[in-house]
C-alpha cells in the first residue's frame, strides 16, 4: 500500500529551478520507473464504517441549516468538488478558498491546501463546526445523531459500543472517504502496459510534462499530494486571495505561499483551478504553471498536448448509491436555517 | 395504469362534514374495495429519457449559482423533500411554502400545493426560472447544456434530434420523476393479502383513519392527490403563511384556502407537515387534521394508532445511483453565485 507518512516521502521542499528539474529528469526511465504510478482500490476499508460514513457524508442535518452536507461542496457527481471559485457556505457566505476534490484525498500526505490536518479523520471535524461552512457544533451534531434511533443502532453495530461521539463520526466519514478512489484511468492502463490506452498527442503531453519539470512536484500515484511547494516559484503569482499557505501553520517565513501540490487525478472535472479558483480552464492553469513555476512559455501546441495528457487522468468515478437517511425522531432538534 | 385526469376522478369538492363522512364509510367494505390501493412501479417510463433526466435532476448548473439542484429541495435521501419548514433558495432566500415530496408525485392529479401545474413536465420548468429557487432562465439553462458536448450527444441520442430546448429538458426530468415510485410499503403488503404485514395497533389506526373520515380526502393509491380541499373545514387553520391555495389559480372565492390534499405515502419521512411546515411531528399533524377537518379530538391512544398506521405507508425508496455529470467545456458560462 501507499506510504502516506510525509516524513518518509521525498518531499522536495527545496527550491527547484527549471534547470535543475530538467536535469533531474533528463534520462527519462523505463515505464517501471515512471515518476507516476497507477492507483489501486484501497485494500482495507471497513465496509460497515464506510456505509455509515456515506450516510453522514450526505446528511445535511450535520449543518446548522439542515441544508448543507459534505456533498454540497464535494459533489461526487462533479469530481468531488463544487466547481465554484470559492464555496458557498452557511447563509450563502462566500468561502475563502477553492474546494479541493475529495477523490483520492486519502493518498495525500496531509489535508487542506495548507496541510493543517494530518489525515481525513482530523479533517472531517473541521467543516461541521466551521461557521462559514456547516456552522454547527460537534455537540449539536452528536445530539442530533443520538436523537435518531436508527443512527444510534447503526453506530452501536459498527463500533460495538454505545459511545457516539465526534470521534466515531469522523472515523466513519473518513472510512467512506477512503473508498473514494478512482482507478483505471486511461493513463493507468497505459502505465500498466496497454500502449493503445493513450494516443500520440497524449503521450507527447506526458513526455513534455516530465521533461518540462511538472513531475518534480506532481508525482506519485496522485500526481501531487506529496509535498508543499511555493506558488510562484519563478515569477510571483498575482491574486486577491489572502491565503498564505503553509505559513499559516508553521509561521515559518520561508513557507509563506507554499501550498500542498494538488493531485492532478480527475483534474478535467475539478475546474476552476488553484487555491483561489482563478483559472477557469486547464489551458489557462497549464500556461500559468509553466510560466510561474518553471519559467517556460508553452506554445499553443505544447499547451494542448499537456491538457490532452491531463485528461487521461480521469479515472472511474466511485459508484455511489444514494443512501436513505434515517428520519429525525419527534425529539430531534429541527434545523434553524434563518436565525 | 392510473387515471390521472382530475375530471374523471371523484373529486369530493363538496364540503364534507364529519357525520356525512362517517356515514359514507360506515359499512367498511372487503379488502378489494378499500379506499386505498397499493401502488405499482410505473409501466412505461422511457429509460434513456429517465437516465438523462436523472443527470439534470442532480445538476446544480441549472441554477444561477451552480449550487442548487432539484435534489437540494427534494432530497432523495430524505423522502424527496428537504425537511425544512420552507425551503432555502438562491442567495439563501427563505421560500414561501413547504417543499412537497416528489416521490409518487406523478400520481397526483396536478402539481404544486395549489395545483397550478397540470403535470410534471409543466412543473419542471418552474423552479429553474423561479428567482427564489434556482434563479436562472430557461435560455441560460439551455445555453449551458448546449455548451457541453456530452450533454449535446446524449440529448441527440435520447430524442433523436438536434433540438435541445427547455421542452426536452422538462420531458427528461419528468421521465426521471416518473420512476420515483415507492412500492411495497407494509400497508401495501397488507392490502395485497399479507395479514401479518401490519400489527394490531397499525390496523386499529387504519380502521380509525377510515371511520373518522380521513379517507374522504386521503384516498386512492397515493392517499391524497385526488382533490383540492379546504384547509380548516370545520375550524379555521391559524397560520402566518400568506398562501391562498387554489384561489390563486382560479380567483374563485369559494376556493380560497383550498390546497391539494397531499399524499400520505412516506409521510414518516416528509416532516414538517402542512403547506406552512408548521407541524413538526406526525402526532401534531394528525391532531390538527382531526380537529380542524373533522371536528374530532383524538385521545392519545387514537392519535398514536393513526400515527402507527401512517408509518406503514413508507415504501421502498428509489435506489438511485448518483449520476456522474458531464464536465463543463471551456466555453461553458461559469456560475455566478455572488452577483
Ligand atoms: C461549504 C463548503 C464545504 C463543506 C460543507 C465541506 N467542505 Fe470540505 N473543503 C471545503 C474547502 C473550501 C476546503 C479547502 C479548505 C482549505 O484548504 O483551507 C475543503 C477541504 C476538504 C478536504 C481536504 C482535501 C485535500 O486534499 O486537501 C477534505 C478531505 C474535505 N474537505 C472533506 C469534507 C467533509 C468530510 C465534509 C463534511 C463533514 C466537508 N468537507 C464539508 C469546502 C467544504
Ligand atoms: C514547483 C512545484 C510545481 C511545479 C514545477 C508545477 N506545479 Fe502545478 N501546482 C503546484 C502547486 C503548489 C499548485 C497549487 C497552487 C495553488 O493553487 O496555489 C499547482 C497546481 C496545478 C494545477 C491546478 C490543480 C488544481 O486542482 O487546482 C495544475 C493543472 C497544475 N498544477 C499543472 C502543472 C503543470 C502542467 C506543470 C508543468 C508545466 C506544473 N503544474 C508544474 C506546484 C507545481
Ligand atoms: C429552492 C427549493 C426548490 C428547488 C431548487 C426545486 N423545488 Fe420543486 N418545489 C419546491 C417547493 C417549495 C414546492 C411547492 C411550491 C408550491 O406548491 O407552490 C415545489 C414543488 C415541486 C413539485 C410538485 C410536487 C407536488 O406533488 O405538488 C415538483 C414535482 C417539483 N417541485 C419538482 C422539482 C424539480 C424537477 C426541480 C428542479 C428542476 C425542483 N423541483 C426544484 C422547492 C424547490
Ligand atoms: C376535508 C379534507 C381532509 C380531511 C377529512 C383530512 N385531511 Fe389531511 N389534509 C388535507 C389537506 C388539504 C391537507 C394539506 C393542508 C395544508 O397543508 O394546508 C392535509 C394534510 C395532512 C397531513 C400532512 C401531510 C403533509 O405532507 O404535509 C397529514 C399527516 C394528514 N393530512 C392526515 C390526515 C388525517 C390523519 C386525517 C383524519 C384525521 C385527515 N388528514 C383528514 C385534507 C384533509
Ligand atoms: Ca478546483
Ligand atoms: Ca413536508
TrEMBL record, chains A, B:
Residues 1-32 form the signal peptide. Residues 48-156, 200-314 form the Cytochrome c domain. GO terms for cellular component: periplasmic space. Its cofactor is heme. Heme c 2 binds at residues 214, 217-218, 289. InterPro entries: Cyt_c-like_dom, Cyt_c-like_dom_sf, Cytochrome_c_Peroxidase/MauG, Di-haem_cyt_c_peroxidsae, MauG/Cytc_peroxidase. Binds 2 heme groups. Keywords: Electron transport, Heme, Iron, Metal-binding, Oxidoreductase, Periplasm, Peroxidase, Signal, Transport. Heme c 1 binds at residues 70, 73-74, 90. Transmembrane segments: none annotated. Pfam families: CCP_MauG, Cytochrom_C. Binds 2 heme groups per subunit. Gene3D superfamilies: Cytochrome c-like domain. Its main location: periplasm. It is found in: Periplasm. GO terms for molecular function: cytochrome-c peroxidase activity; electron transfer activity; heme binding; metal ion binding. This is Cytochrome C biogenesis protein CcsA. It comes from Pulveribacter suum. The lineage of its organism: Bacteria, Pseudomonadati, Pseudomonadota, Betaproteobacteria, Burkholderiales.
Amino acid at each position: 500500500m501507499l506510504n502516506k507518512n510525509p516524513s518518509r516521502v521525498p518531499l522536495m521542499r527545496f527550491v527547484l529551478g527549471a534547470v535543475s528539474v530538467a536535469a533531474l529528469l533528463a534520462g527519462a526511465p523505463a515505464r517501471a520507473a515512471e515518476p507516476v504510478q497507477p492507483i489501486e482500490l484501497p485494500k482495507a476499508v471497513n465496509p460497515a464504517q464506510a456505509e455509515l460514513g456515506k450516510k453522514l457524508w450526505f446528511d445535511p442535518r450535520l449543518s446548522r441549516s439542515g441544508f448543507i452536507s459534505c456533498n454540497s461542496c464535494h459533489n461526487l457527481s462533479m469530481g468531488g468538488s463544487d466547481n465554484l471559485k470559492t464555496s458557498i457556505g452557511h447563509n450563502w457566505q462566500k468561502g475563502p478558498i477553492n474546494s479541493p476534490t475529495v477523490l483520492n484525498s486519502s493518498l495525500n500526505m496531509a489535508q487542506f491546501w495548507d496541510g493543517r490536518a494530518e489525515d481525513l479523520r482530523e479533517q472531517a471535524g473541521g467543516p461541521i463546526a466551521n461557521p462559514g461552512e456547516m456552522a454547527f457544533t460537534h455537540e449539536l451534531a452528536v445530539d442530533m445523531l443520538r436523537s435518531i434511533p436508527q443512527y444510534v443502532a447503526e453506530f452501536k453495530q459498527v463500533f460495538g459500543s454505545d459511545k457516539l461521539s465526534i470521534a466515531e463520526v469522523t472515523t466513519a466519514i473518513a472510512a467512506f472517504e477512503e473508498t473514494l478512489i478512482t482507478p483505471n484511468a486511461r493513463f493507468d492502463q497505459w502505465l500498466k502496459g496497454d500502449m493503445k490506452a493513450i494516443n500520440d498527442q497524449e503521450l507527447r503531453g506526458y513526455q513534455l510534462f516530465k521533461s518540462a519539470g511538472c513531475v518534480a512536484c506532481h508525482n506519485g500515484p496522485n500526481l501531487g499530494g506529496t509535498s508543499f511547494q511555493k506558488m510562484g516559484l519563478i515569477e510571483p503569482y498575482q491574486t486577491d486571495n489572502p491565503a498564505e499557505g503553509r505559513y499559516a501553520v508553521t509561521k515559518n517565513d520561508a513557507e509563506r505561499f507554499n501550498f500542498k501540490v494538488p493531485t492532478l487525478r480527475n483534474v478535467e472535472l475539478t475546474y476552476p483551478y488553484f487555491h483561489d479558483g482563478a483559472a477557469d480552464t486547464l489551458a489557462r492553469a497549464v500556461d500559468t504553471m509553466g510560466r510561474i513555476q518553471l519559467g517556460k512559455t508553452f506554445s499553443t501546441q505544447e499547451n494542448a498536448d499537456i491538457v490532452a495528457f491531463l485528461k487521461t487522468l480521469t479515472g472511474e468515478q466511485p459508484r455511489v448509491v444514494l443512501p436513505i437517511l434515517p428520519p429525525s425522531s419527534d425529539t430531534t432538534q429541527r434545523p434553524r436555517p434563518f436565525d
